[in-house]
Write a structure and sequence with these properties.
The protein has 156 residues and is an alpha/beta fold. The chain is built from five helices and four strands; from the N terminus they run E-H-E-H-E-H-E-H-H. Helix content is 48%, strand content 20%. The longest helix has 22 residues. The protein starts with a strand and ends in an 8-residue tail after the last helix.
Length: 156
């Protein structure tokens, strides 16, 4: 089996927070022996468009020398002062639908902070969720590998 590779897709609306989240994710992925690449977008509203473009590129990688990633980790923070909670849920649903329809291992920490919440603590408040998100992604990648290889896959 080749070394697994994950794309970390993140919103950089709150760069200090997402940089800390990224470092937590990188540490967890590195511990598992998983390589990664990073794709950033300016705002969470851009995440679903970026994921769609990444999935399209991965789909076309079969005809090029590019290797499709084994999974995607999406990180983003929305704040009530920036967007309505309903819009946050629309972004989450769009990302979930894209990943589900593509059938790719996927995990996300896309959170919404209500007005008055202290954003300075958001980086540490979600550290365990990011670690759990990485573990969930690793588990899905392992399941996919098992399903695509014998004894589950039909030998040619």
């Amino acid at each position: 089996m080749h070394q697994p590779h994950v794309v970390i897709l993140e919103s950089r609306r709150f760069p200090d927070i997402t940089e800390q989240w990224y470092n937590i994710a990188v540490g967890a992925l590195t511990q598992q022996g998983i390589t990664f690449s990073r794709v950033t977008v300016p705002h969470s509203a851009d995440l679903s468009i970026a994921l769609r473009m990444l999935l399209d590129t991965a789909h076309h990688s079969e005809s090029t020398s590019l290797r499709a990633p084994d999974g995607y980790l999406v990180l983003g923070l929305n704040y009530k002062g920036d967007m309505a909670e309903e819009n946050h849920h629309c972004i989450w649903e769009a990302i979930l639908n894209l990943a589900t329809n593509a059938g790719v291992p996927f995990s996300s920490v896309l959170t919404f902070e209500k007005e008055g919440d202290d954003l300075s603590n958001a980086a540490t408040r979600y550290a365990s969720k990011i670690q759990l998100g990485v573990q969930s992604l690793v588990n899905l990648m392992m399941l996919r590998h098992q399903l695509l290889n014998p004894p589950f896959a039909v030998a040619a």
